[in-house]
Each structure stands twice: as C-alpha cells, then as structure tokens.
Amino acid sequence: MTALRSSAWFDGDDEVALAHRVAVRMGGGEIEQGERRPIVAVIDTSSDANPCNLPLRELAEHVRRGVTDAGGTAMVMPAMSLGEDLMKPSAMLYRNLLSMEVEELLRANPIDGVVLLTNCDKTTPGALMGAISSDLPTIQIIGGNRPAPVFDGRELGTGTDLWREMDRYRSGEIDRTEWRRFEACYACGTGSCNTAGTASSMAMIVEALGFALPGASTVQAGQGPSRDVSYETGRRIVAMIDEGLTPSRILSEASLRNAARILQSVGGSTNAVIHLAAIAGRAGIVFGPEQVAAAGAGVPVIADVQPSGAGLMRELDRAGGVPSLVFELGDLIEPEPVTCTGKSLRASGRAPLAANESSAAIRTVSDPIVAGPAIRAVSGTLAPGSAVIKAAASDPRLWRHRGPALVFHGYDEMRERTQDLDLDVTADHVLVLSGCGPVGVPGMPEWGMIPIPKRLLQQGVTDMVRISDARMSGTSFGTVFLHVSPEGAVGGPIALVRDGDMISVDVEAGSIELEVSPEELDRRRGEWVPPVSAHLRGWPLLYQQHVEQADRGADLDFLTAPTAAHRRRVDP
Ligand code: FES
Ligand code: MG
C-alpha cells in the first residue's frame, strides 16, 4: 500500500493528531494507528431542489457499505447541487463553482480517494473537474435515468417531446387543456432525463474516460442495478487508493478521443463538447470542438436514442450500455487508456444483448441510425474560434445554406418577436441570437434553439438555420449552430451582424461566413459599445472576469492547468 495522504492528519502522539482522530470517531468512523484504513470522501450532490439527483441520497449508503467492506472509512459530504430545471439563468453558471467546492473539500480534509455521486447535466462534469484538479483516486456514480411518462399511450422522451409539444401548442395544433394534460403526465419521478441529453451524454463520457465501472453510466434510477453498482464502486475505490490509480493516470488525449467517439456514437449533447474541453483543460490538454469533431471521423450514430434516434436511455441500457457501444465500435476505440478498473476501456467491451431485429437499440457501424459524425465543428468569419452543430439532429437540406440575417440581441426580444405574426421573416432567413455567451448573460444559458417564428410555424416550417453564442439543451434538435466564439459580449463578429447581412453556412466544408467586407466590419467594430454588466459583486462578477470562451470549455482561467497552484496531487 502506498502511504496514505490522510496520515498527515492522524499519525503521531501529539494533541493535534489526537483531536483529528477524535473528530473522525465522533462522525461515526474509526481511526487506528499503524495499519490505517483509507478515508474515502463520498461527495453527494442530492438536493430537494434538483429531482434529477435525488436517487443519489439512497445510493450514498450503498457506497458506504462497499467502502467499509473493502477496509476503508467513508465520509459522506454534501456538495452543491446544480439542478438544470430551476437554476437561473443557467446551472452552467455554477459548474465551475461546484468544481472548486469539490477540489477544496478534498484539499482541506483528510481524504485518500473520492466517490462522486452526480446525475444532472452540470454536476457530472463539475464534480469530475474538481476531482481531476485534486488528482486523488476518483470514481463516479451516476444516479440513473427517470422513468418514461406515458401520454396518450405514447412514452415520452424528456426534453425532446416537450419541445415537440411546445411547437404543437404554439402552432395551435393542441389547445390549453391538452397542454395542461401534457404537463400532468410529464412529472414522472426522480432521476435524469431519459433521452441522450446532456446528463446521459456526460454519464457515458465519464464511463468512456475511465471514471465509472463498466455499464454504470446508463443505470435506471431507483432500481437494483444502481444499488449494486454503488456497492461495487465503494469497494473499487479502496483498491484504487491502494494501487495509486489517480486521474492523471486515467485522463489522456487517447481517453478523451475514446470519450468523444462514444458521444458521437450516441448522437449526444453539444454541451458535452464544452465539458470535455473543460475536463481536458484541468489536465493541461487542449481538446476543443475541432478535436471532438476529428475524433468522430468514421464514427456513425449507432445508438437508437433521442434526440438523434427514436428510443430512450432505458433501451440503450438494456442492450448493454457503453460496453456494448465499445464492442460495436471495435477498432475505433483506442486500446491503451487505462480505466478505473485497472484495465482498458476496450477490455470492457461486450456484445450487445439482442433485442428483436426491428428494435435494436444498438446498431452496427455498417448499419447505423445516421451517418456521422453527429457533432461537427465549423469556423469562419462569423465564428473565428469555432461553432458546433449537432448534424445528426438537423435537416441535411439546410447544411449548405445562404440567407439574410434576422438578428435578436437578447432572450426577451427573441421570445417576443418570434411570437409576432407580423415579423418580416421567411424560411430562408438565418436567425441570429447574440449576447448570450459565457460572459454575456453570464453562464451561457440554453437559449440557442431559437424558436421557429410563429408565422412560419403556421406555414408548416419545422426547421431553419439558427446561429448563436448560447448553448442549447442536449435534448434539442434543429439546424442550430451554437457556442459561436468569440461571443458577442466580448466583441466577436456575431455582435456586428445586422438584419439583412448575408450569411452562408456549409456543414460538410466546416464553414460559417458573414458576407460583410472587412472594411465595413472594422467600421462597425469602431462603433460597437461593450455591454455593461449588471453584476457588481460576488460569484457572477468573478465568473465574468475570468471565464474563458466556449471552445476552451468555459472554465475559469485560474482553474485550468498548469497554473502556479497546479500540482499533481493536493498536499495537506
Ligand atoms: Fe436534470 Fe435533465 S434536467 S438531467
Ligand atoms: Mg439538459
């Protein structure tokens, strides 16, 4: 066994070590001298304000059992919960704060290894980023997907079906009574969204990176397997401490490429592109939209799950989850990176469990749901950094398009004008939303899926080109270019677009161009007035002063590695 970090707190006969041992005993643990039990932090992000994470509350005790049985001492520690539904302007504003909380909890306390209990979109990357910065042995538990509600005999996918019903309601296809009836059905229990939105995308990425046991990332909330995997995870972290299996041994460019391929193979969330860049940044690795798109070369969408496919996460889990995706992707998964099991991701591969032919949740590379890559990067005069698009959930007829801009400068304006039946707009227009990037709002809310103007909805238009510096929900769809960087609030070209400017996009060529002369753009730049922030103090101010652009993961500049404070292991 390698020397325990926590020994710095407990070894010795002086009054300080004595007080430390007593504190642990008063908390329900036991500290012996000599052959000591490693201490495992069980970071619990459950909260009544975040129903997605509530299943974790029960799982923490199963982790504790596993840790104890394997010879460790578990300390359950609550950490802030980032609930996607309730937090305004966006839970994303707090992802980096959670990462700091986790890192500092680990730094300040006598911890030898950590189990992260997370579920909803931002808790999963946020907690992992903090643990990577600590470089203590780390393993993650996912709380699982919520059950599917049934509406008019049809199972609903979270998010994806809400957006569809919203369009039906706005177009007048369903009335207010129907809309209310939909609301009553939509509340279906705790757990994460049951589609391949951001939460499930990030869960599968965590497993593919090597930070969760094989099959653990697609468990269903509140069911037996989630308890079993929690117990096994508790046992495994104790062994990882013994083996010195730290994040710096698990996270590499190759493990990031493997994770990006799993994301591409499920047609997952565009938000995951930002989180992958931030996770990589904590280890000093550059892994932005270009790298995610490049890793996706030759990777088709093989998971039949919404929003890129038709099914729910439950079916993907039943078919074998990530180990079966790994199996089907074969040589597309690189063999080297080691995972929390001590073995490679490839070694976890197993053949999918066959459903009947017509409803296979995991298809083969030669017979995919959609040709890949699902998520692509573009750049050009409108987005000199980059922008991303989930091609798999958009209309290929719009991938190459040229049209006049119709610009919205904020959320309220966008909501109001898209409802206006007199809005001067055609299906050829390119809708642009600026000022909603990481600095702009702050926290880069999910406003990027600009609603199709009501006037066009009534004409039967279901998709059109939309461009913004915001994000969109992982469960959303449409020909939407997101995460334009640099964003409008820092003076990116998207801030300079005016109504009627011609914009051309070409997904296959990877381009996004604002057809305005450099001289005219310079002139507009000279007139451009930076927005004045409403935030004068506290976290939002600190965030706006230090957040990086989306293509760098929207992390805070002083949290990325290497910095003066960065070490391979947090020292007491
Ligand atoms: Fe929490 Fe989707 S809103 S997982
Ligand atoms: Mg979401």
UniProtKB/TrEMBL annotation:
One of its GO terms (molecular function) is metal ion binding. Its EC number is 4.2.1.9. Residues 362-554 form the Dihydroxy-acid/6-phosphogluconate dehydratase C-terminal domain. Keywords: 2Fe-2S, Amino-acid biosynthesis, Branched-chain amino acid biosynthesis, Iron, Iron-sulfur, Lyase, Metal-binding. Gene3D superfamilies: IlvD/EDD C-terminal domain-like (3.50.30.80). InterPro entries: Dihydro-acid_dehy_C, DiOHA_6PGluconate_deHydtase_CS, ILV_EDD_C, ILV_EDD_N, IlvD/EDD_N, Sugar_Degrad_Dehydratases. This is Dihydroxy-acid dehydratase. It comes from Microbacterium rhizomatis. The lineage of its organism: Bacteria, Bacillati, Actinomycetota, Actinomycetes, Micrococcales.
